[in-house]
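Checklist before submission:
- one chain only
- standard amino acids only
- sequence pasted in full

Submission:
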Amino acid sequence: MDKLDKMSASLAKNLPVEAKEKTLKNSLSPEEIEIKDDYEFSRKTYKELITTGTKSLDTLAELARESEHPRAFEVLSKAIKDIGDVTDKLMALQKNKKDLEPEERRRHGDRTVNNNLFVGSTTELQRLLARSAPEKKVIDVDIKE
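Returned file contents:
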């Protein structure tokens, strides 16, 4: 069991996804945890409904073709409409989740990164750097062709 314990400890250290998940859960308020749990439950339920409805469409379509009864086609079209409605609800749920998130959490992921690019020779770069640190010397080389 000693090797198994060592392997488990090593895996626990090297799996950052779980660590991030735990850290995220610890940093949330009880209200935010409840919102997150409700969102995950609703999303899972909607996905299961869509999956079940999609699987049942094949059976309903086959039944409607074989019976050629108008009621069977009506039930099939209603099932298609219901699956579309549940899909719309799933997308609305995603939008509502963004509305429920606190403002600082939404901004946290939208950080702006400004990268600076220097266009010029190395001598010009050294002179630019020398202005900020005058104690450094500039190496000036003339290129002869």
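Reviewer check: The chain has a mean pLDDT of 77.
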